Structure formats: structure tokens, C-alpha cells
Amino acid sequence: MAIDEELGFVVTPWEVRGEVDYGKLIKKFGVEPLTRELLQRIERHAGYLHLYLRRGLFFAHRDLGLWLDSYEKGVKVVLYTGRGPSGRTHIGHLVPWIFTKYLQDAFKATLYFQVTDDEKFLVKQELTMDEVERYSYDNVLDVIAVGFDPERTKMFIDTKYAKTLYRIAVEVAKHVTFSTAKATFGFTESSNIGIIFFPAIQAAPCFLAQYLEGKDAHVLIPCAIDQDPYWRIARDVAPKLGFRKPAGIFSKFVPGLIQGGKMSASIPESSIFMTDTPEEAAKKVWNAFTGGQPTVKEQREKGGNPDICTVYYYFYFLFEEDDKVVEELYQRCRTGDVICGECKRKLAERVAKFLEEHQRRRERAKDLIDKFLVED
Ligand code: TRP
After folding, report:
1. Residue nearest to atom 10 of ligand 1 (CA)
2. Which residue's CA is the closest to the ligand 1 atom numbered 4?
3. Is the CB of 153 under 6 A from ligand 1?
4. Is the minimum distance from the CB of 116 to ligand 1 under 6 angstroms?
5. What is the pLDDT of residue 3?
6. Could you tell me the pTM of the whole model?
7. What is the pLDDT of residue 5?
8. Is the CB of 83 inside a 6 Å radius of any atom of ligand 1?
9. Which ligand 1 atom sits nearest the alpha carbon of residue 96?
10. Using a 6 Å cutoff on CB, does residue 114 contact ligand 1?
11. Residue 53: closest CA among 95, 18, 25, 105
12. Ligand 1 centroid distance, CA of 46 (Å)
């Protein structure tokens, strides 16, 4: 798809390209920016404000206020998120999941987690069903390793939970015209017919709690903003099926380690994979794009530019909780007091520790798969 002329970038569920201006994206998608008042409400229930909210990594929503109203009034609230298993998991994928765990703990909510093997098979020309199946089970381990509550989490792989999902998906699909799907997702005459139906499958879990239990529930979807087109469809259809519209809370994309663009599994140098060794990860951090000067001498004289530095982003958005420490890092970079090697070394240490802990939990997850996965 061409770069959107007015915007200068593209964001669809299958492609993110160009320099994303999140202010413009909020307007284009018709989502709302997160407000201080909403953050305070979340903080009140959770006991603290998650780093991703404090630093604005999660930045927009739909109906979050209504969802919080439901919780406060005692309406059952649930969470829904997912993963398209097209490759190995990287740190960028973990952001919505870590955040979802925070919400699960805060609101004691059941989480429905969808693994869209069908979607990835249909979208990625080169992937076979066998490969997608291998990635599905591999990725499930990374999801479990995030630490979701097994009593409150139901994960499912679409082709292994097809009976239940299909029943809901046909109800959804009947209310979505081809012209709406085309306008929402950019389908063309050469799109395969599988992917044209698929939005109904991704919408189905929005109504799964209500369907399974035959009771009212209000769903909140924490995810990256590129998934929003699916929720526009789901929200349109919801009242026609007698359900509440799903609410959403949306994140920005985690930038890759190379210049420009999000972390992307198809550009391995840009991504720290959850199964990378600390050495592999350190090497990628070492080659990361920074805001530094070409030489140490120039860095000392002119200072660096943290505003364009991926290493600084990683501290800011992911790895450094302490506001004073990030502020100090910012100033020390600007004044040339710190050089890139020092920052990279520190980041590589943080990343190594994060990977080691994740990999330990990932090993344990192998014994927990049956507790999390449902099939029909
Ligand atoms: N389409 C998503 C992807 O490609 C997977 C997904 C399914 C999802 N359901 C979701 C993501 C709900 C977020 C929320 O990764």
C-alpha cells in the first residue's frame, strides 16, 4: 500500500512504514488520547501507575472511561489481546503483554489470548501451515513467561479453537459488508478470500466471555495501535449482536535498534529476540543507532542528541523506572558528559538480565502449556 499522501506514513495491521506521527494517527483513527484523569483512575485501582503509562508508551484509547465505570459498578470486566505467530517473539511484542498482566493483576480480570495462526498463514505468502504451527507453540511459551495468572487466562490458537470462534465469527461476518472491509483494511481484488473473512475471527473473542457464560461482560483490549481497524469493525457490530462495544487501550510501536521504524522480526538487527543469548543481544545493542557524534572528541565538545537515540528510548520507555535517572542521562548526553559506549554497555547489561529472567520463566512455561491453552 502506498504511503498515505497526507500523513507521510502508513499504519495498518499488516504494515507500519514511515515516521509515525501519533497525534495525526489519533485523529485519523478516531481514537482518544489518554487523559490525566483516566490515568489517575487506573492508578487508584492498580496501586501504582505502570511505567508505560507514565512515559506515554500507551497513549490512546476507546471507551476506557466506560470500561472503568463498568468495573466500578460491578459489571464483569475482561481483557482480550493476542499474537500473530509469524516468527520469533521480540521485546517489542512483549510490551502489550507485560501491560496486560499489569491490568490483569489490578482488575482481577480474565484474559482471553488469541493466537492467529490462520491470519499469518493467509497474509504471509512464504509461510506454510506447519511453520506457523511451530511458531504458535513457540510464541505461546513467551506469552506464558510474562507471568499471567493461569486461573484467569484462556489462550487459544485459532485453528485449534475453530468451532467456538466460528460460531461467533459468522454472527459478526453477517453484519460486515465487503465495502466496509475494503475501506477499513485496504483489501483489493487480488486479496485472498481467507483474509477477507478473517476480521470476523479476530473480532470474535471480543464477545467470547459473553458467549461462553451467557452473561454481560465488558472487554478491554490492550494492544498496539495498528490493531485498531479490527476494533472499529467489532465496535460497529457489537450492539447489533446485543453486546457492549469493546474498549481499547493502545500503545505506540517500540522503535527498532537501527535508524527509523519499529522493532521488526523481518529485520533481525533491529530486534532483540526473547531467545537471543546475552551476547547476541549485546552485539545488537552495540550496533544500535544513537544520537552520538562520530568521535569521542566531538561528543565531549558538542554533546549528543538523546531525542533521536534508540539506546535512550530503550531506557526511557522500557528499562529505567527512575525519573531522576533518565533525566540525568538526558542531560549528561546533551552536555557530552556521557559517551555512547557507556550507555550501550549499561543497556546491554539491563537487556541481558531481562532476557535471562524471561528465559528461565520460558523454560518453566513448557510444563504449563496445558493450564493455559484451550482447544475444542
Ligand atoms: N492480529 C494480531 C497480530 O498480528 C494478533 C491478534 C489477534 C491480536 N487478536 C488480537 C493483537 C487482539 C492484539 C489484540 O499480531
Report:
1. 82
2. 84
3. no
4. yes
5. 54
6. 0.96
7. 64
8. yes
9. 13
10. yes
11. 95
12. 25
Rounded Cα distance between 299 and 304, Å, is 6
Enumerate the CATH 3.40.50.620 domain ranges in the chain, comma separated: 5-253
258: amino acid identity, one letter: I
Task: Say what the pLDDT of residue 60 is.
Answer: 98
Quote the CA–CA distance of 18 and 312 in Å, as a whole number. 20
pLDDT for the residue 1: 44
Residue ranges, the chain, pLDDT below 70: 1-5
Are 91 and 318 a contacting pair, CB within 8 Å? yes
Q: Which of 81, 90, 208, 250 to mutate to test the pocket of ligand 1 (most atoms within 8 A of CB)?
A: 81
pLDDT digits (tens, 9 = 90+) for 270-326: 899 999 999 999 999 999 999 999 999 999 999 999 999 999 999 999 999 999 999
Q: Is the CB of 81 under 6 A from ligand 1?
A: yes
Q: Return the CATH class of domain 268-364.
A: mainly alpha
- Which residue has its alpha carbon closest to ligand 1 atom 8? 82
Q: 5-253 belongs to which homologous superfamily?
A: HUPs (3.40.50.620)
Please tell me the distance between residue 223's alpha carbon and the centre of ligand 1 in angstroms.
Answer: 8
pLDDT of the residue at 2: 45
Helix (H) or strand (E) holding 77: strand 77-83
Identify the pLDDT of residue 267. 82
Residue 83 and residue 139 in contact, taking contact as beta carbons nearer than 8 Å: yes
Query: What does DSSP assign to residue 245?
Result: P
